[in-house]
Structures are given as structure tokens and as C-alpha cells.
Amino acid sequence: MNFELVEIVPRELKFIFEPKKQSSCTIRLINKSQNHVAFKVKTTSPKKYCVRPNTGIIKPRSSCDFTVTMQAQKAPPPDMACKDKFLVQSTVVAEETVEEDITSAMFSKDDGKYVQENKMRVILVSPPSSPVLSPINGVHSDLPSYKDSPRKDEVRNENISGQQERDVNGVHSHSGGFFEDSFTRDQVTPRANRNPPQELDENVKEFKKENANMQMEEKHVQLETRKHGEEMELVKDVENMKYKISELERNLSEAKDTISKLTEERKFAAQERESLQRELVMLTSKKGGRKVRVGFPLLYVVTVAFISMVFGYLLHY
């Protein structure tokens, strides 16, 4: 399956950062398919963010909004760079599925089911009146970035384990998958506690893992495409066989009709022959019943003889 089930607008979460104030961001999910789609939102920092709703059902060709609220923070991160990540998972479900039926098992790829996963990064921007400027075109402001000031949220982040994937409401979910492999504890740990070589190694490992996952997804898509092509060829072969069978049945029906006509003609010819034979027998019997007489009748001969004798006698005298 190589198409998007859900379109996400916007693709990034932007929060206006103000110390000791909450900030919210609304994301819209658009169902681009003809099926009912279930979604689930996860994050690497479930205690820092609140998502409502974090699960739901989107009807075909419809949309659904969820709001992400960032809890109040005492100070901004260094250079206004936030390492938090979000993951939006979506998959096709039955039409009768309701929100209470959604579980973490629905988004498991173990059974070969297609699950769309979209990673979203967090961008922090300063309010217009703030002296700390947000990054513009990759260049940060030269103003103080609060690097040297200790923050309680950094201490708290050190105690958060990134070995297990969490839902946005703080409840643990399944441990496998693309999201967990991409974001580990070392990546969530503040930048000040990591040295550059270690960070480079972790980035290389992360890149290798993402590359391996992308290759696996590409192979899965190719396998699905090949399977779909084979199914289409099989359907074509079945249709051709059905067409040939229908042609044979039609020819067989025509042959049966022809044989029936010839049989009827043969019966009619036999009846005609029998009728002619009966007429011939009748004519023969009538002709044989008549007696044929040859020569003159006896009375005629006697009469002629008598007349001849009388006439001779008269001539003699």
C-alpha cells in the first residue's frame, strides 16, 4: 500500500513559548481514503504535553482535529531548540469500530497490517515582545540563551526513561516499532550533558536505523505492489477462461440445434419415402388385377366365317 491514509495539517507543532505559561497548537487530520481510519498520537515527553483527543476514528473523506497543550515551563531550552517529537499512527478499521475499541494492538505491524506513521517535530517561537528571538533561516539570535541557568525541567528529563514508548496520556504502550527506535533516552537527554563525539555516534546510529526502516518499508511496498500485480494477472486469466468457456457453451448449443434440425429432416425424409413406397405398391396391385385379352372374339370369327361361306356359295352358282 503506497498511499497516504491521513494528511496532517500542519506538519509541525509550533508553540509560542512564554515562561510559566501554557501554549496550545491544533493539528487537523484529513482522511483521504474511502475507509474508516483510527489514529493514535504519541510523544517522547508525555509529562510535558497534553493531547486531546489522543485517539479517535475518522470517517471516509472527513477530518478530525486534536489539540496539543504544552505545560508551563520556567525557562526556554538552549537556542529555543526543542528535541521533543510526536508520532501520529493511523490504520484502517472496520466501520462499526468506536473510539472505545481502539487499542495499541491495532497499530502493530506484526501481522503485516499497513500502519501509516508520521513523525512531527516541535518548534518553539518567541512572542513578538520577547527579547529572545526564535531561529530564523537556521541562524539564532546572539542574545542570552539561558544556557548557564539551571532548570528544573532538565533535571526532571534526566529521570525520564526513553527505553519504552509512551502514549501522550502517560500510559505505557507496546515497546516495538519505528517510533521507539528513532527516539531513545540519549536523544531526549539535554544537549549540555552530551559530548560532541557521542552525539555524532548517536546521530549516525539513528540515521542507520531510519535508513534500515525505510528500506524495510520500501521492500514491503514492493511486495504489496508485486502481489497486487499477480492478483490482477490472475483475475485477467480467470476472465479469459470464463470468456472461452462461454464461447464453447455457445458453440455447443449451436451444434445441438443443428443436430436437432438434421434429425427432424431425416425423419421427414423417411416418412416421405415410406409414403412413396405405399403409393407404388397400391399402383402395382391395381395394374395386376386387370386381364388383358389378345386376338378377336369367337363370335366375331364365326360370323365372318358364315358370311364368307354364303358369299362363296352365291358366287359359285
UniProtKB/TrEMBL annotation:
Sorted alphabetically, the keyword list is: Coiled coil, Membrane, Transmembrane, Transmembrane helix
Q: Spell out the Pfam families in the cross-references.
A: Motile_Sperm (PF00635)
Q: Which stretches are transmembrane? A: 294-315
From start to end residue, where is composition biased (Polar residues)? Answer: 185-196
Residues forming coiled coils: 204-286
Gene3D superfamilies assigned to the protein according to its UniProt record, in alphabetical order: Immunoglobulins
SUPFAM superfamilies linked: PapD-like
Name of the molecule in the record: Vesicle-associated protein 2-2
Native source organism of the sequence: Nicotiana attenuata (Coyote tobacco)
